[in-house]
Amino acid sequence: VLGNQDLQDSIKPQKVEFHSLNFNTTLHWQPGWAREARDVLYFVQYKVYGQSTWQNKDECWGISSHVCDLTHETSDIQEPYYSRVRAALAGVYSSWSLSCRFTPWRETNIGPPMVTVVHSNKSITVKLQAPRSPYRRKRGSKIPMTNYYDLLYQVFIINNLLDEQHRVLVYEGKDKVIKIEDLRPGVSYCIVAKMYMPVLDQSSAYSSRQCTVL
After folding, report:
1. Distance separating the N- and C-terminal Cα atoms of the chain
2. Which CATH number fits domain 114-213: 3.30.420.40, 2.20.25.10, 2.60.40.10, 2.40.50.100?
3. I want to staple 25 with a disulfide (CB 3.0 to 4.6 A). Which of 20, 31, 67, 145 is the partner?
4. Any idea where the Fibronectin type-III domain is (predicted)?
5. How far apart are the C-alpha atoms of 114 and 177, rounded to whole Å?
């Protein structure tokens, strides 16, 4: 039988990490090596860097999941945060496992834009929509990520006749509607786009492909 100290060590959460996309922020961890891992319960706390007291996250207090949503708790996006997790099994509690410091504005990942394509006989009109944060304006609509960063749209065209992997950058800027002209009728073209953040030199993933035949 494991002694208490061994049991504490065996259930202690591992790899406590923040994951964040467009300020939708979750804490993830991995279970310890205890064989009874599925019976383990987890307890999550968080605080702003520099504060002395930890806050309990009520919705993640005594949960069996390995993920906890901290979007609401990390809404002051310039502040650095910490979180920590401990585990309990059969009345025995592990010590706390601490996350790295997390600053949403610096560390959230930006998602790709939404892309809509409308074609005429020799041109494609591309409509772009920036990803949205989880935070809402007073009227209720979600605030776009362009409110928080100086973001550029990058639009690429793929000529399927030539090479499906070859993306040509046709536009970089802030316009939400762009027109690509002098294209060949009867040819299949695909458009993908991403968001680019010059200040941190970061790009989003590519959007899903929107394809059309002129």
Report:
1. 72
2. 2.60.40.10
3. 20
4. 12-107
5. 12
The token pair that represents 181 in the structure block = 């002209």
Closest-CA residue to 115 (of 210, 20, 7, 15): 210
- What class has domain 1-106? mainly beta
pLDDT digits (tens, 9 = 90+) for 34-49: 777 678 999 999 999 9
pTM reported for the whole predicted model? 0.89
Contact call for residues 23 and 104 (beta carbons, < 8 A): yes
Among the listed ranges 5-9, 58-62, 152-156, which one has the minimum average pLDDT value?
A: 5-9
E strand or H helix that includes residue 8: helix 4-11
The b-or-e profile of 5-23 (16+ CB within 10 A means b, else e) is eebbebbbbeebebebebb
Where along the chain do its domains lie? 1-106, 114-213
